[in-house]
Amino acid sequence: MQLFAYNQIGRPDELLIWVGIVEAYPPPAVNFEIHGQPVAAQLLPPGFEPLGDEVCDARGNPLNHRALFKLQWPATTERFQITVRVPGTDATTILTSRRPPEKLPAKAAESFNLLLSSCYYQPNDKSAALADFIRAIKPSPDFTLLAGDQVYLDLPSQQNLPDNKKRLAQVLGKKYQVNWFSTPLQQPGLAQVLSHGPVLCVPDDHEFWNNFPLYQVQLGNTHDEDDRANWKNIAQRLYERYQMSPAQAAGFFRQDVDPLSMLFLDGRTQRDAGGKQMFNAATQSAIKRWANDLLARKKNNQAAVGLLSSGQALLMEKPGRWARKFADMEMPNYDDFPVLTNALAQLFAAEVPVLYITGDVHWGRIVEGVSPRGKTLFYEVIASPSRLIDTVGSDQLNTVKNIFRKEPKPFPKHPSAPDDLAGIKLGNLRLDTKHRQQGDHVAMLRFHAIPGGLEFSVDYICTDADAQKRREHSSTQGPFKLLSF
Q1: CA–CA dist 233, 168 (Å, integer)
Q2: How far apart, in whole angstroms, are the C-alpha atoms of residue 356 and residue 379?
Q3: Are 146 and 155 in contact (CB under 8 A)?
């Protein structure tokens, strides 16, 4: 039996704990402690339910389950420890959390810290594991955002995935299990990243397959419509059982930490293949409501700053007919993208600033947007990847090329952030790249409230196995200011 738990993001009054138990039927009861003291926990409906991987015992009983429990937040503003255990066994897991504040701290106090990570390919995490870097990060994150591609269900591309639905569920489910239950399995994985809550997971294409929902030439299980439907249904169920909090089930999650209004969007699970829709109706309404709430704050002479996030970069050129099929459909390819850009244009016109954070692209960067009047109204912060995928052919070619360069690249397999933003428009802002990050990394955003808005810094933490590269390619960027007055 293996046990794992993490603090999923919940509504403001909820301390929500996800508990997974594998290799046990029926799933046993669990107990909770906070700082070593027993606490009550409400088991949320439907109780323990199968994880969706179709792993069963000889009698057909499902062996792998998860459940959600609601606890009371302890009466402290400090970080606290939660212990989850199965009574009468040595199955125990420990996590920490800190209740998100109602307001950002002032400059004299400790910062509000948001850990941004994305694009984790577990097979490439064999030495100097990501978990070790996350464990050592100071300050500890107060909010963890996994911004897409927490699993790569479609990789390696040479894998021979079964057509049978049950076997396919078992193969795909095993990839989740390795990442989530990595500590009890004594393998690299995401358990340590997930252990500092609250945690919010935003889905992107590799939660399904590359460029989902379009078929991919290299993935045989996507060529037939029925096969795509089978894969989609299994992947959706696994995403919902492992990653999705009930608080984001409508397609978005909203939380305000005054003056910051944060909106996290699911732009992937409701996508169609024709470029019509990436956001469902509830998500589109949430975008408009978020913008209107910020405008109302500004009108009432209250500081107002937006934070927006989805599974893809915002400042991307629109791929053409072939690129969108054989590479990636970006957000500008979708007919409902203007719902997002129109909301941003409204905010910029009223001089309400916005910070956009994401992953996806396998490089990091910070872009600044300044209005014609010279006011900074926008930043985009990207952190990707935490562990780079393998790309057969180009990896080998780039490695060979690097041998013959006069100045070898430190990360020859990693793409570089684009130099040119000239073809990209966002309202009437002048866009300028302030930082480019290459190599495996995560980012910590540290926030303080200041009069009229906020100040933030970005710690880019290189997670390469090579210590010298980590020293040379880790840096703090900022501080940056976003002011509505």
Answers
A1: 11
A2: 6
A3: no
Tell me how far apart the alpha carbons of residues 464 and 470 are, in angstroms, rounded to a whole number.
6
Of 253, 319, 327, which Cα lies nearest the Cα of 290?
Answer: 253
Mean pLDDT of the chain: 96
- Rounded to whole angstroms, the Cα distance separating 340 from 230 reads 31
- Residue 432 contacts residue 374 (beta carbons within 8 Å): no
175: amino acid identity, one letter: K
Residue 138: half-sphere exposure toward Cβ, Cα within 13 Å: 1
Q: In what order do the strands lie in the sheet with 80-85?
A: 37-39, 31-34, 80-85, 92-97, 196-197
User: How many Cβ atoms sit within 10 Å of the Cβ of residue 29?
Assistant: 10
Residue with tokens 């239950």: 181
- Dig out the tokens for 213 from the structure: 């929902």
Is the separation of the CB atoms in 359 and 314 below 8 Å? no
pLDDT, position 41 = 97
| Rounded Cα distance, 215 and 221, in Å | 9
pLDDT of 128 reads 85
Identity of the residue numbered 56? C
